Amino acid sequence: MLRKRSLVLLLLAGAAVILVASTQVWATFALAPGAATVTEVAVTGQQTTPALMPIAIALIAASVTLSIAGKVLRPVLAAVTALLGGGIAVVCIRRVFGSTGDIVASAGAPLSEVTGLGASDQTGIVVEAHQSVWPAVAAGAGLFVALIAVIVCVVGRSWTTGGRRYESSPARSTAGGRTDRISDWDAISEGDDPSEDAAVGPDETDSSAGADDRKP
Question: Which residues form the signal peptide (predicted)?
Answer without folding.
Answer: 1-27
